[in-house]
Amino acid sequence: MESVTGPVYRRMIETIGRVGALYMVLLDPDRLTPDENVHLAALAAAGGVDVLLVGGSLSLEGRCSETIAAIKREVDLPVVIFPGNVGFVAPEADAILFLSLVSGRNPQFLIGEHVQAAPRLKRIGLEPIPTAYMLVEGGATTSVEFMSGTRPIPRTKPDIAMAHALAAQYLGLRIAFFDAGSGAKAPVPEEIVSAVAGYVDIPVMVGGGIRDPETAARIVRAGAKLIVTGDVVERTRDGGLVRAFADAVHGA
Ligand code: 1GP
């Protein structure tokens, strides 16, 4: 029988053990061309990013495979898919976050997409990383909220976030990902991060609306083990800022 965790997840956990927390940059194939994303990926690699996430909520352009193939040709970083639905499955990636939207009550995103995706992943040999995805109020309606027809966890309710993450752990999921959504006005509150990190044994991942290294460092100090930024890197395309984020996440 195969181990339930694959090599990419195990390497991520080893990296966390070595550097304290892992810094991921999200590249969205809908928002940028493959060439632009390769440019950002190279910038990320030079700036000390640990893992590239590729994905988003829509895949309107259907460029996930093409983008990942182009990145893998040029950049030596693990590429993990951050899927919005089964259409994001791409054999060129190293792994895929096998996300269950556990903060919602929409069966399609709790298990439906997964039933379609699982046989494809097995056939192409793509590592699934079982991940609980929990949307947290970030001050604006997010694409995930709209597309999934689910409501986010209220910002002021750490107890609800804790119960969701613990249920996810007991279901066997390996990462508790709290996301305020891309471009959120406010990131996931540190109170939620510290409450959950002190309560569950699986690593806490945080993204959405993180715009400066100081905020990233504060969220790591609150207990997050994985930090993801997308929008700020995409907008600024600033290698120095990427390096500052990586240093802040690793040094927090
Ligand atoms: C979105 O957490 C990611 O799902 C990244 O968010 O684009 O706001 O950095 P930002």
Question: Explain this structure to me?
Answer:
The chain is α/β, with parallel strands linked by helices. The protein has one domain: FMN-linked oxidoreductases (TIM Barrel, Alpha-Beta Barrel), CATH 3.20.20.390. Strands 1-2-3-4-5-6-7-8 form an eight-stranded parallel β-barrel, surrounded by eight helices. It is globular. Bound molecules: SN-glycerol-1-phosphate (1GP). SN-glycerol-1-phosphate binds next to β8 and α9. SN-glycerol-1-phosphate (1GP) binds next to β8 and α9.
Structural features:
8 strands, alpha/beta, TIM Barrel, 10 helices, binds SN-glycerol-1-phosphate, 252 residues, 8-stranded parallel β-barrel
Q: Find the count of extended strands (DSSP E, 2+ residues).
A: 8
What is the count of distinct domains? 1
CATH top level is Alpha Beta
Specify the oligomeric state: single chain
- State the major sheet: 8 strands, parallel, barrel
Shape: globular
Task: Say which molecules are bound, naming each kind only once.
Answer: SN-glycerol-1-phosphate
Which consecutive residue ranges, at least 5 long each, have pLDDT under 50? none
Which H/E pattern describes the elements?
A: HEHEHEEHEHHEHEHEHH
Distance between the termini: 38 Å
Q: Mean of the pLDDT scores? A: 96
Walk across the major sheet and give the strand order: 1-2-3-4-5-6-7-8
Radius of gyration: 16 Å
Give the helix/strand class. Answer: alpha/beta
- Which second-level CATH architecture applies? Alpha-Beta Barrel
- Which percent range describes the beta-strand content? 15-25%
Classify the helix fraction into a percent range. Answer: 40-55%
Q: How large is the count of helical segments?
A: 10
